[in-house]
Specification:
57 residues; mainly alpha
Length: 57
Amino acid sequence: MLSWIMGNLATILISAVLVLAVCLIIVKMVKDRKQGKSSCGCDCGSCGACCHGKKEI
């Protein structure tokens, strides 16, 4: 078991860093969402939601 871990140490470390980065991004997105911030850069608190409604043809 130890030899397998040592043989794959680089892959394990890189995977751990990537998982950590994804988790931090998700936490930041949830935190921003709770504060009313949007990923588009606009303030959804003052948005009239005209761009989110049904489009008329």
